[in-house]
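Example 3.2
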Amino acid sequence: MPNTTVNPDKASKGLNHPKRSVRKIVRRLGLSLLAVLLLGVLVFLLVPSPVAPAKWIAPAAPSFQEAGPWKQNNKLSSAELVTDAAHFPEFITFDKEGQLYAGDSDGKIYKVPFDAAGNPQQAQIFADTKGTPNGLKFDASGNLIVTDIQRGLLSIDPSGNIEVLADHVNGGPIYLANEHDIAQDGSIYFSDTSNYGRVMFKEMAENKPHGRLLKYDPKTKQTTVLLDHLYFANGVALSADEDFVLVAESYHYQLTRYWLKGPKKGTSDIFADNIAGFPDNITRDEQGHFWVGIFTTRLAFVDQMHSNPWLAGNMAKIPQALLNGASAPVKHGLVAEYSPQGELMDSWHDPDGSLYGITTAVSHNEYLYIGTAPGGSQGVHRVALTK
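Structure, written as tokens:
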């Protein structure tokens, strides 16, 4: 018989051959994927940025751990829900009867009455702008003046009928009407946030001013530009004497003051700077103090990006949808209180993040009412004004 003895070394090699083939395929596949990835990175870096970022060395963010008015506390942690009918109540105002009004991002404006004991009752729909109502405030005639980021400056009568007051200025569009305040003579001061027309991360990466402060005159029905070149113009509030108007520049962490009276009339300066986050809306209380909602505390990667235009330019190439999570508000509720002279009096925190993404803080009848925007917590909340 022929010799059928099998060499064990050869058998072992034969059995292992398929495994070696698989390993080779895996290695080749891995190298191919790496090559594709490196090519993709190279192409990404070579593609021109949609913006030419301006370098800015942002001031170091205030510490929440050190003693001082920014020191962390839990004053907002006890906030109670007033209504969740408006999921994201960007702004809050009250009529002469003390009823609360809040707009939602879907266009609806809700009215919330209170009983004799001050308890909120069921919310009712007051109007629907078919846009996105941000700023709300009643004029002397009882009309609700609204800054709608899609439709411009609106007036809504007590029956809910809507009139567009202004959607153009100087022959061009009002891009993003955001917030406003109304003077005793009926003049309306409001922000046009950015000529980008919507909130975009690449504007933040660009770090150039695209916002404006506008004025609407109800007598002439004309709109004029008071200030331009603002870094994301946001909240607006008049001083008690109406000698100046404030506008928040969210992307530079500051409040800018535009003088309406006195020797500085027609000029502007910085009212408050190095805010511990992105300031949103501004309201004034009966003592003349200003309350500032801070949508998010400072984002370290944003400050780092501003100091490096190359990095900022490449960040601007990333699709907006992929950056929404990275730029989401920090889960730390924050409100700042300033004196009429611009001194930081106090800060109100919710470090646990039950209430965050704060846009508005309104002092009313011994409560601080809190509004938020998409990305933050939902509903109108309030906390007692006892310190």
